[in-house]
């Protein structure tokens, strides 16, 4: 019993450290890039140009219709066979960014469409271009609508980064796997890893609540 | 057709279809500087479509919209987006649903166009906006968000937002029809004040008392054509067309 308690305490910081140096930066960087991709895809999807919207539609369909693990393997194990060797970390970032790009694109598209048409026209009538109107009038209002679902996307991403362990990225779960293999205490160590993910998600959820409140400032209730 | 001497705007042969449905059949109209033109007519007659065409929010299928000293856009030819949008340099629209930016304060709503589009210095835009808000009795609301205002106050901010652009022509699309009756007067009062000051306006409204007091010319539209036009005294008291008379009857005596 004491040995196990000791193991639990001894492994806690290494696992948390794996989260701080692996999981969290991996999730943050992938999410940031993913949101940019998603915005571009959403705008392409909304464009009147059939080629652009077609490309966006296919992209979203592929991302949502294939497992993230498969996407990760294609990039890390598949691409080297045609001469593109990508290291574990960048491979993970690429796979997660593309994945977020596909899921968040639909969220952003719906959020943009939720802003009343009159807001575009108000932008136009004061002389703004469509780009200016999008940036200054539409996106800030769409952001309010998009924040709750995008926060959920982010929280899912934090958990999905555990998949990076299979391409040997040192992150929270990979650290836990090493400790578990070394000590053979699978139950304790994996439950501990789960606990740390859960703590991270609790912190993120409270941040989500605060962000939503801030964005709600200008809305009547 | 180019505008005559004191004309600000000349529109001729304006046509517009939505799919199979032709909603404007050759609209001609002229607006002189300082004049108030009121557009009346039943629902679906095309009033909003005319206003939107003047502001480049709608692309007509044919016809010319020509402002004195330009731009003059001939929609019978292929028209670029930039050409169509250039119409907005001369006019600004006040919408029925005000369409204020909900994420911006009153002041930010008003200075957005001057600062972002016209590149006016922020400090100048702010002091001009404050003066305009003062004029419509909303000086103390400058830092409020639109949802904190009454409908009448929102619409007055909508008017100030348009005024701040210093357009040559103000377009109003039923600015009071979404308002509670007791708030209508404030907004019409502001509009009358603007007319007295010499602003050129095209107003779509069902407020016949406003038309009677303020309009220089009233146009009656029905089924996508201007059926009849004239000074309010003449058009309201002695309409020459049966359709005009029927419409006025329905508005003045809705229960008969
Ligand atoms: N974007 C659109 N697509 C299809 N039809 C449209 C569109 N906008 C207007 N219409 C049609 O064009 C006709 C004229 O509409 P418009 O809004 O100009 O009328 P209106 O005189 O302003 O009516 P109201 O008094 O109800 O505001 C109507 O039959 C309307 O259904
Ligand atoms: Mg209308």
From TrEMBL, chain A:
It is a multi-pass membrane protein. It is found in: Cell membrane. The keyword Lipid biosynthesis does not apply. It holds the Pfam family BPD_transp_1. Residues 20-208 form the ABC transmembrane type-1 domain. Its main location: membrane. The chain crosses the membrane at residues 20-46, 58-79, 187-207. Gene3D superfamilies: MetI-like. GO terms for cellular component: ATP-binding cassette (ABC) transporter complex. Keywords: Amino-acid transport, Cell membrane, Membrane, Transmembrane, Transmembrane helix, Transport. InterPro entries: AA_ABC_transptr_permease_3TM, ArtM/GltK/GlnP/TcyL/YhdX-like, MetI-like, MetI-like_sf. CDD domains: TM_PBP2. One of its GO terms (molecular function) is L-cystine transmembrane transporter activity. Belongs to the binding-protein-dependent transport system permease family. This is Amino acid ABC transporter permease. It comes from Orlajensenia leifsoniae.
TrEMBL record, chain B:
GO terms for molecular function: ABC-type amino acid transporter activity; ATP binding; ATP hydrolysis activity. Residues 9-248 form the ABC transporter domain. SUPFAM superfamilies: P-loop containing nucleoside triphosphate hydrolases. It is a peripheral membrane protein. CDD domains: ABC_HisP_GlnQ. InterPro entries: AAA+_ATPase (IPR003593), ABC_ATPase_HisP-typ (IPR030679), ABC_transporter-like_ATP-bd (IPR003439), ABC_transporter-like_CS (IPR017871), MetN_ABC_transporter-like (IPR050086), P-loop_NTPase (IPR027417). Keywords: ATP-binding, Cell membrane, Membrane, Nucleotide-binding, Transport. GO terms for cellular component: plasma membrane. It is found in: Cell membrane. PANTHER family: AMINO ACID IMPORT ATP-BINDING PROTEIN (PTHR43166), L-CYSTINE IMPORT ATP-BINDING PROTEIN TCYN (PTHR43166:SF35). This is Amino acid ABC transporter ATP-binding protein. It comes from Orlajensenia leifsoniae.
